[in-house]
Design goal:
Number of helices: 3
Helix content: 55-70%
Number of domains: 1
Amino acid sequence: MLPAWPISLVVAWRPFLDPLNLHAWWWMLLVPLSFGIAVTYRATRVATFEGFWLKAVILTVQIVLSMFLLGIASYLFIQVAVPYLMPMPG
């Protein structure tokens, strides 16, 4: 037997106007998004598809590591450099 979902809840969901509440899980979407970008980029740049998937996976790892390192760099900049450059009066 099907669950008794109110049909108005299913029909009323608008993907771009009412996004899913995945704010706590955004980091899990980084890998599929990076993989999709890597596959699309590699597909437009290769002459032959020999070693295509390996190159796409390597590019995915590079994108994820770059995002991680950029996050660390921005955190350190905000926590270390900004207070040093603009000290709070007091």
